[in-house]
């Protein structure tokens, strides 16, 4: 399977506090997550480095890809991928620094114009959202499902959907041709690592149905 197709697990420092980061991410990988994004909004550079390095090793063991949110220097230092939003710096500059092989993702909200600019900057995938109500990011601007059809007909790159994705609504996104399902709460709000693995397996199965 292409590395840019499947479940894209995104970490959350609240849901994955108190020692849950590594066991829960490992469970997501065991369940079949293909990409992991390290999303940590703290300014603790040492802890961020150590956590990201540990996640990079876990992803390597599972032949999955690690993506760092917001932080080009950290992605470069670890030799892993990067996701940037509209406020996070230049995608083109990131592509130039990371080289042609690195996975680079860009947030496009509900805008085909932002997607066009991201394509021109050299991204590896286009992220649209939010498609459903999100407890993680309730104020993210909404995006309609039809946008996915327009994006797929206009761009050749993999399309990622984010925002309130659950096992119940994911089939609607897949019906509109989504390649990557980016999930935080529906995956990592679980009460145990075993439950994370079960949820990840259920998401991953949607791509083989
Ligand atoms: C896969 C994916 N898509 C969108 C986002 C959101 O990025 P951004 O708009 O920069 O918001 P933050 O995540 O930084 O709060 C993402 N992180 N990942
Ligand atoms: C980080 C993020 N970005 C979004 C966007 O629309 O760009 S929605 C979102 C939160 C995704 O978390 P959950 O799966 O818990 O809704
Ligand atoms: Mg960001």
UniProtKB/TrEMBL annotation:
<keyword id="KW-0784">Thiamine biosynthesis</keyword>
<keyword id="KW-0460">Magnesium</keyword>
<dbReference type="GO" id="GO:0004789">
    <property type="term" value="F:thiamine-phosphate diphosphorylase activity"/>
</dbReference>
<feature type="domain" description="Thiamine phosphate synthase/TenI">
    <location>
        <begin position="7"/>
        <end position="186"/>
    </location>
</feature>
<comment type="pathway">
    <text>Cofactor biosynthesis; thiamine diphosphate biosynthesis; thiamine phosphate from 4-amino-2-methyl-5-diphosphomethylpyrimidine and 4-methyl-5-(2-phosphoethyl)-thiazole: step 1/1.</text>
</comment>
<comment type="function">
    <text>Condenses 4-methyl-5-(beta-hydroxyethyl)thiazole monophosphate (THZ-P) and 2-methyl-4-amino-5-hydroxymethyl pyrimidine pyrophosphate (HMP-PP) to form thiamine monophosphate (TMP).</text>
</comment>
<feature type="binding site">
    <location>
        <position position="69"/>
    </location>
    <ligand>
        <name>4-amino-2-methyl-5-(diphosphooxymethyl)pyrimidine</name>
    </ligand>
</feature>
<feature type="binding site">
    <location>
        <position position="164"/>
    </location>
    <ligand>
        <name>2-[(2R,5Z)-2-carboxy-4-methylthiazol-5(2H)-ylidene]ethyl phosphate</name>
    </ligand>
</feature>
<dbReference type="InterPro" id="IPR034291">
    <property type="entry name" value="TMP_synthase"/>
</dbReference>
<dbReference type="InterPro" id="IPR022998">
    <property type="entry name" value="ThiamineP_synth_TenI"/>
</dbReference>
<keyword id="KW-0479">Metal-binding</keyword>
<protein>
    <recommendedName>
        <fullName>Thiamine-phosphate synthase</fullName>
        <ecNumber>2.5.1.3</ecNumber>
    </recommendedName>
</protein>
<feature type="binding site">
    <location>
        <position position="70"/>
    </location>
    <ligand>
        <name>Mg(2+)</name>
    </ligand>
</feature>
<dbReference type="Pfam" id="PF02581">
    <property type="entry name" value="TMP-TENI"/>
</dbReference>
<keyword id="KW-0808">Transferase</keyword>
<feature type="binding site">
    <location>
        <begin position="37"/>
        <end position="41"/>
    </location>
    <ligand>
        <name>4-amino-2-methyl-5-(diphosphooxymethyl)pyrimidine</name>
    </ligand>
</feature>
<dbReference type="InterPro" id="IPR036206">
    <property type="entry name" value="ThiamineP_synth_sf"/>
</dbReference>
<comment type="similarity">
    <text>Belongs to the thiamine-phosphate synthase family.</text>
</comment>
<feature type="binding site">
    <location>
        <position position="137"/>
    </location>
    <ligand>
        <name>4-amino-2-methyl-5-(diphosphooxymethyl)pyrimidine</name>
    </ligand>
</feature>
<feature type="binding site">
    <location>
        <position position="88"/>
    </location>
    <ligand>
        <name>Mg(2+)</name>
    </ligand>
</feature>
<dbReference type="InterPro" id="IPR013785">
    <property type="entry name" value="Aldolase_TIM"/>
</dbReference>
<feature type="binding site">
    <location>
        <position position="107"/>
    </location>
    <ligand>
        <name>4-amino-2-methyl-5-(diphosphooxymethyl)pyrimidine</name>
    </ligand>
</feature>
<feature type="binding site">
    <location>
        <begin position="134"/>
        <end position="136"/>
    </location>
    <ligand>
        <name>2-[(2R,5Z)-2-carboxy-4-methylthiazol-5(2H)-ylidene]ethyl phosphate</name>
    </ligand>
</feature>
